[in-house]
Records
---
Amino acid sequence: MTKHATAENRPNVVGLQERRLDRTILRTYRAKVDLDEVVPNSNQPRSGPKEDDELQRQIEANEGLFEPLLVEPHPELPGKFRIIDGDRRWTNSRLLVERGREQYRQIPVEVTDRTLTGEERLRVWIYIHRQRKEWEAKEKEMVAYRLVDLMGRASAANILGITVRELDKLVEVFEISEKFTKLRDPSAAITWARELMGVSKKLLVPSVIDAVVKKVNQKRITNSKDLRKLRAILPDPVARAHFLSEEGDLESAQLRLRVIEKKANDGLLTDLESAVEAMKRVPWTALQEMKGDIGALKKIEDAEELLKSLRKALTST
């Protein structure tokens, strides 16, 4: 076992470098350490299996890890480091070593000069992962759920930089995604849950969620985008009852939709409701990216003027 690597006693450390990660500034140095000197973080936000055949192939192709693990001095185990970011890289390097590939035992690390606080560690991890494509694909709901479990709703919302209401939506999507257990690609469960949450909240009662999950798990619904058909089916009592029945599916339920001639004002109200629902579904990350967008602000101003005119027309006597 090698001696505990700190900035003071490791001979190949030239100096500490500053690394800014959102509001947190870290002082770090680079080193190579043995796998056994590194310990996973039991409160890491990412859950689920970490074994990844593709990542193992990348490690072998690069003859080792290309990106260093970000680690900190372990607060309870002298001579050890705790992972801040890089748990999957550590896990798959260890699997290769366990199969006799000893050349992957020494791994590159970036070491902080101190142990971080719990909030700092989470903020750093989230900032790093937001820069990666996996964040939008599947991680933000899972992380929101995990943070609520670790520290409660208010603190979780604060760390993610969103409102508690937005946090609750992410948690709900994750909880629904966990019900889709028979998908060929488990990571696609988030996509299914997001599509289902696109249905009006007042229509998405537990019996509807259970029916959808059951039919998806039975492979009677095979395309997540087909769930959008529920927006027409669920408001219709006959079509809805058929879909909820054992024999019902999306296609047969659509055949039972009543053809109703809508009045002009019904169409207007439906369009307004659809517009409001669409705005509610805009992710907070997209809003962050649009900050200061002159074109977007102009369109919002035009919409405000139009709504004011509509209100005036409807309230005038």
---
Amino acid sequence: MNYRRLGRAGVKVSEVALGGWLTHGRTLQDDTTTQIVHRAFDLGINFFDTADVYNQGEAEKSLGLAIKDLRRESLVLATKCFFPFGEGPNDRGLSRKHIFESVHASLKRLQIDYIDLMQFHRLDLETPVDETVRAIDDLIRQGKVLYWGVSEWPAHKLVEAVLTAQDLNAIPPSSNQPNYSMLHRPIEDAVLPVSEQYGIGNVVFSPLAQGVLTGKYLPGQPPAAGTRAADDKSNMFMAWVMKDENLQRVQDLRTFAESLGFSMPQFALAWCLRQRAVSAVITGATSISQVEANVTASGVSLDAEVWAKAESILAGTSE
């Protein structure tokens, strides 16, 4: 496993991380989650991502149980807040009150003394950025949080957060967590350049496009039983990516990747990691074998000609 700095911060995270949005505390039993987390740790994964809203706290609880027997200092634990976690008007957003209460609630569910990376799950247009920055900086100074970041913030708001932190003599954000894959690339225009400029490390989610980039879905055929695309509780964001034209390009990419000696998931994850502003790819897993496959993407380095060929396949221009 290779490790990268989280942007300009000194902390190092594994290039391949383990997340639990659809699995921890939901589709997996706690003992299975523990087995997967322990195997991931044995393979060099030190970065584990979750959020308070994932199954309304159950994902954090399950991850907390899974890490109890692991050396705390060897882990980089990331969680998030923003989305509603109750019916009250202050049970959401990025106000000082909600951030403060969310951090303490996550600490209890995870059964830890501090959070390595606290992330703001979305942008809060109702709360001034300076209030949000000062609140998380206070928690850092109290030792409850070590680093902070955001998720799915546009480039101009990343800049505002950095400059606001500078004005307040506060710690700036270390990370951003955007959706990024071969099939979803909007961050390339502005977010990645801004991240490089200001030292923000991107820990990208859905790098396999919710499993589509594994190559298991075939054009013109219904998804197999037991897959995410066949589960109406898990496929709510997949309609756009399941179009036949996308599935065909993935099959073409798969043929190309395998001709080079790589699996399609390995190739797709390495494609994300080719970006200097990407610190880690966050992967999910329902089995130990999936973790074992995903970690092989770490350290893969390919020539520009290979990526150029992949680009032509993605664009549908490859002969």
---
Amino acid sequence: MDDKKIKKENMENPTKTDKAVFEKSEASYHYTEAEAFSARRASDDEKNPFAETSSDTVNPETTEHETVDAEVADNKEAEAPVQELEDTDVVEESKIRKVDAKKATRTKRTSLKKKVWLTVVLDILFIGLGLNAFALLHHVIPSVGMPAPVVRPELTHTPSAVTGTPMPQATGDTQFYFEGVFLEEGQKEQTETVYKSENVSVELTYHEIDGLRYYVQDVYVRKIDYLKTAFAEDTYGRGFEEHPVDMAVNNNAVCAVSGDYYGARRKSAVIRNGVLYRDSTYNDVCVLYHNGIMRVIDKEEFDGEQEILNGAYQAWDFGPNLLDENGKAITKFISRILGKNPRCAIGYYEPGHYCFVVVDGRGANDSEGLTLAELAALLEGMGCKAAYNLDGGKTACMVMYDSMINEHLDSDCRDSSDIVMITDFE
């Protein structure tokens, strides 16, 4: 084996002696380096009189590996607070983000609540404005554009009468004669309850029966023209209302009762003093003709223009009808006002002879009022051949001259849009 091969083997597999020699040589090398470094540092300290020898003196026993480890340890100690600070910043940043998220959520919720409340307030405001506009248009501002009056032609034929109702041949100029009813020309009689002249006769009577109080005005007219109707503020249209006493006084009425309150409805038949104002129906229609006949027409059969041709003078549309075609009381009604209430009605005996009836109710004068069936029975008992219910309740009102005759509990009657009245002038 040559020398090179032996040397290689010794390097790859050193003996214990070789290892000892190597380690001794390595230690000697490190020691020599340490001494050299210490000498250089001492020389530098001599050159720098301001150096602090106690902190910079190198221990010759310290090895290079130990010095590196010390530097690494120092670096770790220096980096530790930085790392800890960085971790703290992350935590703080996380907390800030959570707080910001909560604030954003609260802001969104507050904004949403504000939007919801704003929407609700605006809805209420618009609804209120709409209701006010509706009330203003329908109850305060009078309707305009009154239909042109229909000119009343000459009577073409006598209207068909309800069976059992007298059908005298008469025209618009027909006069009615009743023995001992009217006074001589130029004469007049007037008391609190009676008014008589050559043209009209009105007698007011009071009645109390078993806790019921009602009033009757027995009316005769020489000609149908003395039985008139009047509008509130002397104007046709919705939104016009006036107290019945004021309407009666303004029209020089001898007596009057509340009408059908046509102004409370958009749809109903309105013929007043021979003029057709509205040709539609709300209920069965009560028609008074120029010949003095009064009858009730089914709502499906009523034709305003045709009735004008037939000689219609007045038409009321409230109802219901109270007597059948034989003058007998109707006992069954389809109505929302079936119970006991203050009532107002017009009755018909014969051409030129009528009655107005008003009933106290709801405790006024200790009177409960009448049901529709009881009102019908009352009119039948009075001998009427036809009878029709007008607007009652708080609207019910009877006037004699310039005074209201009936009473309402703790209040006055309501204003209305029209009245039925008796006057002493054509």
